[in-house]
């Protein structure tokens, strides 16, 4: 297939530029464009009168295609900010075959105002294979004009990565769409394998006005959790008013740590470039998308995010303490001599403190290794090591000193060792939390406190208290000492003789 055949097979572009006071209805308006066809005969023709006009186009793609309508420039009507609506004229883009289909899937997109060519590039992506675009003005003005282009694109060419099986929020696929809902989704994250994608309705085009969609993200694997990324390396662009005290009032995304809107509220995002990396405390996250009536400059496209399965919280051998949010106790027993745990990687409120306590049996040494990769500056977030009732170390951000990771090992024969984590600023999530590895070791050594920290090039050692040698080893040491002296004396005698 040559390049022309390839282009005709996969997409066809129609470009329409009109200055409304110069054209006649029979010349351009009220026409249907179909895939692979030229301009059709007028379906309706009536000369414009000098005080108003109405003009429409219908674009019909193949059943496995979407219609992408792009507004490159326009000068039609005026937006009334007080009443939040278009006046004197507008452009309406409908996902369907006519204005009678309005609202069958999602609300129509209506815009107005003055946009020079290149000043705006507004896209409308349909879910059906037909788009209906109408231009309406209540009064003929000298500068009424529009500049639009239309593409018929194969659905699997709009975005081939990831595959439809892993894409949620797109009505072209309807994968995970809740029955009898317009845009509510159920997302089984255990099937994602790091590939699942969620998006706002209409993405990568403008999202519809007055729309509310819910994305219930669930991990059905035992004790597994959910991880969500919005913004950052992925697109996030929602309308945000610049009026005082009007932030995130109409167009926003809300996130809940659970399956319903009564679950703990994690945050609200809006505007352009906002970002969130969220980790659930349990097996569910809920994302709620809401849009208002729509306002200029109509340059927002919604969001494109990723969801993944998150490993289960690790507190091997531990017991969660009652009436606490993140305190754990680890006791030595025949079935629990070593394990690991991590401090919360999910949402924590401000001034949070979490405590991990380790309790040994008689004649046991407690050994713990604290692994730190990130802490906030100026000790806003830190870790304390407690040997019994004594604080023996405090780890703040300056201890990292630009290193990627810091491992700190401590041991004691005291019956209790504790690690306290404090986060003054709170967190939405922490993808790389602080980990602790612990061991209960049988032994006779009288080691009270020891710390060894290492990371790549640097090694730091703390204080080690005096140690006593086990009496059972004393005879061996004495024999070695006498043997050494005997050999040394023989060598001296041989030298002088």
UniProtKB/TrEMBL annotation:
The chain crosses the membrane at residues 472-489. SUPFAM superfamilies: Spermadhesin, CUB domain (SSF49854). Residues 1-25 form the signal peptide. It comes from the Eukaryota. The keyword Transmembrane applies. This is CUB domain-containing protein. The lineage of its organism: Eukaryota, Metazoa, Spiralia, Lophotrochozoa, Annelida. Residues 183-310 form the CUB domain. InterPro entries: CUB_dom, Sperma_CUB_dom_sf. It comes from Owenia fusiformis. Coiled coil: none annotated. The keyword Membrane applies. Keywords: Disulfide bond, Membrane, Repeat, Signal, Transmembrane, Transmembrane helix.
């Amino acid at each position: 297939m040559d390049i022309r055949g390839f282009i005709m097979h996969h997409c066809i572009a129609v470009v329409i530029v009109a200055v409304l006071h110069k054209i006649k209805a029979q010349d351009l308006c009220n026409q249907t464009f179909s895939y692979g066809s030229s301009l059709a005969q007028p379906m309706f023709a009536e000369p414009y009168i000098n005080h108003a006009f109405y003009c429409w186009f219908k674009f019909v793609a193949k059943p496995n295609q979407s219609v992408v309508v792009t507004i490159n420039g326009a000068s039609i009507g005026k937006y009334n900010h007080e009443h939040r609506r278009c006046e004197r004229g507008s452009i309406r883009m409908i996902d369907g075959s006519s204005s009678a289909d309005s609202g069958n899937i999602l609300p129509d997109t209506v815009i107005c105002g003055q946009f020079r060519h290149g000043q705006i590039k507004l896209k409308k992506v349909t879910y059906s294979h037909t788009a209906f675009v109408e231009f309406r003005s209540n009064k003929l003005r000298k500068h009424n004009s529009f500049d639009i282009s239309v593409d018929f694109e194969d659905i699997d060419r709009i975005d081939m990565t990831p595959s439809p099986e892993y894409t949620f929020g797109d009505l072209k696929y309807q994968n995970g769409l809740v029955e009898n809902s317009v845009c509510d989704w159920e997302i089984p994250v255990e099937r994602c394998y790091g590939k699942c994608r969620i998006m706002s309705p209409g993405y990568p085009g403008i999202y519809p006005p007055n729309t509310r969609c819910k994305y219930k993200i669930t991990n059905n694997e035992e004790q597994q959790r959910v991880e969500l990324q919005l913004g950052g390396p992925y697109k996030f662009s929602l309308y945000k008013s610049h009026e005082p005290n009007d932030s995130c009032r109409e167009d926003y995304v809300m996130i809940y740590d659970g399956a319903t809107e009564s679950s703990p509220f994690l945050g609200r995002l809006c505007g352009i470039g906002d970002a969130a990396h969220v980790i659930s405390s349990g097996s569910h996250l809920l994302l709620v998308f809401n849009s208002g009536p729509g306002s200029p400059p109509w340059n927002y496209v919604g969001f494109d995010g990723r969801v993944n399965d998150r490993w289960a919280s690790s507190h091997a051998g531990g017991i969660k303490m009652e009436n606490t949010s993140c305190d754990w106790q680890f006791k030595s027993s025949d079935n629990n001599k070593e394990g690991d745990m991590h401090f919360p990687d999910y949402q924590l409120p401000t001034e949070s403190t979490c405590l991990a306590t380790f309790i040994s049996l008689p004649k046991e040494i407690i050994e713990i290794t604290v692994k730190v990769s990130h802490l906030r500056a100026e000790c806003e977030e830190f870790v304390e090591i407690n040997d019994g009732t004594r604080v023996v170390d405090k780890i703040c951000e300056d201890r990292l000193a630009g290193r990627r990771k810091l491992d700190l090992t401590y041991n004691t024969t005291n019956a209790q060792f504790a690690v306290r984590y404090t986060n003054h600023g709170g967190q939405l999530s922490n993808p790389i939390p602080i980990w602790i590895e612990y061991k209960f070791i049988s032994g006779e050594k009288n080691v009270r406190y020891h710390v060894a920290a290492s990371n790549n090039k640097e090694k730091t050692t703390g204080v080690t208290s005096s140690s006593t040698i086990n009496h059972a080893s004393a005879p061996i040491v004495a024999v070695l000492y006498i043997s050494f002296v005997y050999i040394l004396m023989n060598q001296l005698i041989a030298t002088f003789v």
